Amino acid sequence: MAEALQASSLLSSLSSDGAEVELTSPVWQEIYLSGLRSWKRHLWRVWNDFLTGIVPASPLSWLFLFSAIQLAWFLQLDPSLGLMEKIKELLPDWGGQHYQLRGLLAAALFASCLWGALIFTLHVALRLLLSHHGWLLEPHGAMSSPTKTWLALVRIFSGRHPRLFSFQRALPRQPVPTVQESVRKYLESVRPVLGDDAFDRAAALASDFLKLQAPRLQLYLRLKSWFASNYVTDWWEEFVYLRSRGSLMVNSNYYLMDFLYVTPTPLQAARAGNAVHALLLYRHLLNRQQIPPTLLMGMRPLCSAQFEKIFNTTRIPGVEKDYLRHLQDSRHVAVFHRGRFFCLRTHSSNGLLSPRALEQQFQKILDDPSPACPLEEHLAALTAAPRSMWAQVRESVKTHAATALEAVEGAAFFVSLDSEPAGLTREDPAASLDAYAHALLAGRGHDRWFDKSFTLIVFSNGKLGLSVEHSWADCPVSGHMWEFALATECFQLGYAADGHCKGQPDPALPQPQRLQWDLPEQIHPSISLALRGAKALSGNIDCHVFPFSHFGKSFIKRCHVSSDSFIQLVLQLAHFRDRGQFCLTYESAMTRLFLEGRTETVRCCTREACHFVRAMEDKEKTDQQCLALFRVAVDKHQALLKAAMSGQGVDRHLFALYIASRFLHVQSPFLTQVQSQQWPLSTSHIPVQHTHLFDVHNYPDYVSSGGGFGPASDHGYGISYIFMGENMITFHVSSKKSSTETDSHRLGQHIEDALLDVASLFQAGQHLKCRFRGLGENSGYRRGSLSSKTVDPKVPTTSTNL
To answer: Which residues are catalytic (predicted)?
Structure first.
């Protein structure tokens, strides 16, 4: 997603005023600190599990084991084979009257030791099982007998009801690939986009690197992988995100949309009340680890570490690098409306406020007639400024308005009550969706606190959206939370017939606290400068969102093709038609099969994809020839995707080698060339994870419409897509208006044409091109119903299982 831009900006993040920033820490010290941070996180998770009553196994299992030992002892059986007698001898002699107490203590100690040994054995066995990735190599839709056996063992050792962090101690560490293989894959990936001379230079640099610098750098990486939980993630978060000095807006954040065709209520305060309540219910489940762990394909657990910082987290700016501040709890949200900031308490002495009570509080904010104070209205534009500038100004803000700043940065999350409507309209569906996406991604430059982990945006007509800061986690994690919130507020909480939240108002609630910013006039020029920069950045972004309803995932399944590979090849064809050339293409793939894994890059512009695209543009090629090349390209993409997911990708390894070279002050022209590459096409597939929460067949409109992000280069595109149910795909395209080479709407039309052209290669899709081509530019906006509908509040609450 937006990480492609951050990754391509790595070199600039390691330079200051044109001079390279020296990483003066010895590499041995950095490896030690990485290991220390990993163990601190590990110990904190153990302590947090203890505090919440969730230890490596249920306390009931220890009680059952202790009871079984006591029963065996009562039946004059010794399951410890004499160990309990040895333990009793070591206990203090309190006299004969305490003989039974010594027996109970000995049994408890033996049960605890046996219980811990069993848990340790289970974790080791499970880690060995989870280190197996042969199942990834299975043909699509098939499963061999060894894989079925492996899956059965994983389920046995996983326990009956695993919790969110149950697998964290059993997940394997991400492996360090061989340098030779990573370099080979890199050269293979750039061959389609480089001329002969440029490729020969790249190959020569690679050869020199393998001979001179690679062995030493690889040695340090392997050493780091023994100490740290993940050999790349801490460096990735620091150097790609936290050391980036550019604006977070557009460059780093991404957005998530509401339902596309329905609005549960047109009342802004009611929608805000239900949404905030649903999000805080999710936080409660998260704190209690009552959210089931994510299972890939329903069988392989993924790392849950990124869930820890969803709430109560703020990215604090620094002069050289930022840091993430995470609080264990926060009982308020910060609210922005018409240039004013409020602190809204979300809990009372009885616990979390009801949705109706929250609606009441939001309505008080909406009805508050007080004007914004000087410097307050545009203050949040500073969070969209370059990070070093904001870090310096923040010191002055903290000095003069510490209470207000703490209320914002210490909030569970940020809420922006927008004064304008948003969402799909019948009058101009295309322009309204584009404006909706733009409002979520950038807003007006001063109405989002971009430092917060996420901002909930509630528009005046009841539409919702999220703006998410990227450094703390990747999109699937925030998407998991967002799907839960949408399903909960619509199907579990619901709305009354008049559109208000269910329940009764609470007249005893105090007025939301208006935050006071006593700021000096000296920061006015900084706010003005930040606002001009934010508006310029916002005004330069061209967003285009379009739902494609001619076919969807169900059709692609009938073609026996991976849906993601299908779309990626469509994007290659569309981009070639748009630009007349091939380019490096970034697709984000998760590496959460490993402990603290984040993402890896799938380089989708392969030689096989190029052959397919050229064949599609060659009128002499038959559909059968194009289809054969298509399947070869799909197989190649699937191989690259599986390699990336199993820790055998290219980019994260080369990135870690580059950072190691900087710590060691080793000059590597090859690694510098790799890190300076641009990504003209950055793509991401947004998965739908809570399929059990949405009744797609009976309520097809209740599906999240995904989200988007900014382009990764000045002359490039950012594209995300989501499969909405079985028969629709929504695309989010972005580019920069300042570029004369890109146009988001033009590429969107190429994508629609390419989808129909590729579908027509299959027998099941040969009718699509003739049927839908030429129906007009609005043909993709769904079955003749283009308006955003208000939901019947009588939608049954039994369609979800919460």
So the answer is: 470
User: Does 579 share its domain with 475?
Assistant: no
Same domain membership, residue 503 and residue 558: no
Average pLDDT over residues 147-152: 84
pLDDT band at 19 (very low <50, low <70, confident <90, very high): very low
Whether residue 572 sits in one domain with residue 447: no
Mark whether 550 is an active-site residue.
no
For residues 469 and 612, membership in a common domain is answered with no
Per the residue annotation, which of 277, 337, 446, 470 is the catalytic one?
Answer: 470
pLDDT tier at 28 (50, 70, 90 boundaries)? low
548 and 535 in one domain?
Answer: no
Which of 514, 539, 564 finishes a domain? 539
What does the alpha-carbon distance between residue 701 and residue 491 come to, in Å, rounded to a whole number? 13
Residues 427-448, buried b or exposed e (16+ Cβ, 10 A)? Answer: eebbebbbbbbbbbbbbbbbbb
Element of type H or E holding 759: helix 744-759
Of 92-106, 481-495, 512-526, 704-718, the one with minimum mean pLDDT is 92-106
Query: What SS3 class is residue 721?
Result: strand
Q: In terms of domains, do 687 and 723 share one?
A: yes
Check residue 214 and give its pLDDT: 93
0.70 exceeded by the pTM? yes
If you average pLDDT over residues 115-132, what whole number do you get? 84
- Taking CA atoms, 774 is separated from 405, 675, 768, in Å, by 55, 43, 11
* Alpha carbons 493 and 503: distance in angstroms, whole number: 10
Q: Is 546 helix (H, G, I), strand (E, B) or coil?
A: strand
Q: Say whether both 447 and 575 belong to one domain.
A: no
What pLDDT, on the 0 to 100 scale, is given for residue 778?
42
Is pLDDT of 462 > 90? yes
Residue 345, in any domain of the structure: yes
Strand partners, 468: 254, 454
User: Is 786 among the domain residues?
Assistant: yes
CA distance 795 to 9: 47
Look up residue 170 and give its DSSP letter.
T
Answer yes or no: do 547 and 501 share one domain: no
Residue 297: CATH number of its domain: 3.30.559.70
Q: Is the pLDDT of residue 788 over 50?
A: no
CA nearest neighbour of 202 among 671, 708, 746, 593: 671
3-state helix vs strand vs coil in the chain, percent to 5: 50, 15, 40
C-alpha closest to that of 256 among 448, 459, 6, 440 = 440
Q: pLDDT band at residue 140, thresholds of 50, 70 and 90?
A: low
Confidence (pLDDT) at 794: 44
The whole domain housing 68 covers 55-131+143-158
Going by pLDDT thresholds of 50, 70 and 90, the confidence category of residue 792 is: very low
Total domain count, the chain: 3
Establish if 163 belongs to a structural domain.
Answer: no
Cα end-to-end span (Å), the chain:
30
Pick from 410, 443, 440: nearest CA to 333: 410
Report the CATH number that the domain containing residue 597 is assigned in CATH: 3.30.559.10
Tell me, yes or no, whether 5 lies in a domain. no
Structure-token pair, residue 526: 């900084």
Distances (CA, A) of 487 to 364, 436, 704, 801: 26, 21, 9, 10
DSSP class of 460 = T
pLDDT at res. 131: 87
